[in-house]
Write a structure and sequence with these properties.
Distance between the termini: 20 Å
Number of strands: 8
CATH topology: f41 fragment of flagellin, N-terminal domain
Shape: rod-shaped
CATH superfamily: f41 fragment of flagellin, N-terminal domain
Strand content: 5-15%
Domain Flagellin C-terminal: 268-352
GO molecular function: structural molecule activity
Number of helices: 7
Organism: Rhizobium tubonense
CATH architecture: Up-down Bundle
Family: Belongs to the bacterial flagellin family.
Function: Flagellin is the subunit protein which polymerizes to form the filaments of bacterial flagella.
C-alpha cells in the first residue's frame, strides 16, 4: 500500500543516512586527529590508561630536564676540581724546586699572620718561587669561587649550609609510581673550602672530617694555612699572608732543623691532599656515569611509554582512510536512496490525471 501521509521508504533511508553520517564523522575525526580514542566516550578504559601514561611521560620529561641540569652541575664541578688538582700539583712541584735551592736569608720574624714584606727574604731565589706559589693559591681560590652552574657551587660549603660530614647533594634521577628517585653525592667529596667548619688541623687528624681539601693546616717546622683559617671566634677568614715558604724557612734556620726533612714533610702533605682530591673526582665521575645511564634509561622509558600510548589510542591510518572512502560511498548511496524514496510519492499524481 502506498501512503501519501507516511513515507516508510524515506524514513528507512533517513535512518540509514543518519547511521552512516555518525560513522563518517567518527572516521573523519580519526583521520584528522590520528587517534581512534580521542576522548573518554570513545573507549573509557583505554582513554583513562593513556591519560595516566601521558601524565607519567610528562613527569619523565621533567626528570630528563633535571638530569640535564645535574649533569651540567657535575661537569662544572669536575672541571673545577681538576683545575684545582692541577694547581696543587704545580704548587707541590714548586715546593720541590724551592727545596733544591740554597736556604734564603730572612729578617728573622716568623708568624703566619705576618703580612709585612721581608725585603731580605724577597731578594732570594726561594722568595721568587714563594711568590709564584702565592699566585697559584689565589688562582685556586678563584676557581673555587667561580665553579658555579645555575647558582650551584659544590666546591665550597657556605656557613649557612649543612655541616660536614654527613651533608649530601641530591640529584633527581627518575620517577616511578608517583615517587621521585634521587642520586646522592657526599658533599665532602667535592668541597674544597668549608666555610662552615670550626676547627683547623692536619689532613687526616681529628677534626679534619669537617674540613675541605684546602682547609686546615700544612705543617713544616711552622704552620701554613693555604687559603683560609678559623680565627679565635670560630669564624673562617681569608688568609692574606702572601708567604707560604718564608715562615718555614725562618723556623728551620732559627732552630737549626733538617731542611730536607721538613720540606719532605710539606711535600708529602701536599701529595696526600692531591690524592684526596683525586678520590673526590672519582666519586664525582661515578655519579656522572650513573646519571648518564639513568638519562639513557629514562629516554628509553619515555619512548616505550609513547609506543604504549600509541598502541592503545592511535588510529590505523590505512584502515581509517579505506573506511573513510567506503563510508563516503555509503553516504552517497544513502542520499540517492532517500531521493528515490522521496520521489515515490510524486508518482501518485499520475493516478489522478
Amino acid at each position: 500500500m502506498t501512503s501519501i501521509i507516511t513515507n516508510n521508504g524515506a524514513m528507512a533511508a533517513l535512518r540509514t543516512l543518519r547511521t552512516i553520517s555518525v560513522d563518517l564523522n567518527k572516521t573523519q575525526g580519526q583521520v584528522s586527529s590520528g587517534l581512534r580514542v580521542a576522548k573518554a566516550s570513545d573507549n573509557a578504559a583505554y582513554w583513562s590508561i593513556a591519560t595516566t601514561m601521558r601524565s607519567d611521560k610528562g613527569a619523565m620529561s621533567a626528570v630528563s630536564d633535571s638530569i640535564g641540569l645535574a649533569k651540567a652541575v657535575l661537569d662544572t664541578t669536575y672541571s673545577g676540581m681538576d683545575a684545582v688538582r692541577q694547581e696543587m700539583v704545580t704548587i707541590r712541584n714548586l715546593m720541590v724546586t724551592a727545596q733544591s735551592m740554597p736556604p734564603p736569608s730572612t729578617n728573622g720574624y716568623s708568624n703566619w699572620t705576618d703580612n709585612e714584606p721581608d725585603s731580605t727574604y724577597d731578594s732570594s731565589e726561594v722568595a721568587k718561587v714563594d711568590g709564584e706559589i702565592y699566585q697559584h693559591w689565589q688562582q685556586i681560590n678563584t676557581i673555587v669561587e667561580s665553579s658555579s652552574f645555575s647558582g650551584v657551587n659544590l666546591l665550597k660549603n657556605d656557613k649557612d649550609e649543612p655541616a660536614l660530614p654527613g651533608a649530601t647533594t641530591e640529584f633527581v634521577a627518575g620517577y616511578v609510581n608517583g615517587q621521585v628517585l634521587k642520586i646522592s653525592l657526599d658533599t665532602k667529596d667535592t668541597t674544597m673550602i668549608n666555610y662552615n667548619r670550626s676547627i683547623d688541623n692536619l689532613w687526616g687528624q681529628p677534626g679534619s672530617e669537617n674540613m675541605g681539601y684546602l682547609d686546615g693546616v700544612l705543617w713544616s717546622a711552622n704552620v701554613v694555612y693555604p687559603i683560609t683559617y678559623v680565627d679565635g671566634n670560630g669564624d673562617v677568614q681569608k688568609n692574606e699572608n702572601p708567604y707560604t715558604l718564608r715562615n718555614v724557612e725562618v723556623r728551620i734556620t732559627a732552630n737549626n732543623l733538617d731542611r730536607d726533612h721538613y720540606y719532605g714533610a710539606l711535600i708529602d702533605q701536599m701529595d696526600t691532599r692531591i690524592q684526596a682530591v683525586t678520590s673526590g673526582m672519582s666519586a664525582v665521575g661515578s655519579t656522572q656515569k650513573r646519571l648518564a645511564m639513568q638519562e639513557e634509561f629514562n629516554n628509553n622509558l619515555m619512548d616505550n611509554t609513547t609506543k604504549g600510548i600509541g598502541r592503545m589510542v592511535d588510529a590505523n591510518m590505512e584502515q581509517a582512510s579505506a573506511k573513510l572512502a567506503a563510508v563516503q560511498t555509503q553516504q552517497q548511496l544513502a542520499i540517492q536512496s532517500l531521493n528515490i524514496a522521496n520521489s515515490s510519492s510524486q508518482s501518485m499524481l499520475s493516478l489522478f490525471r
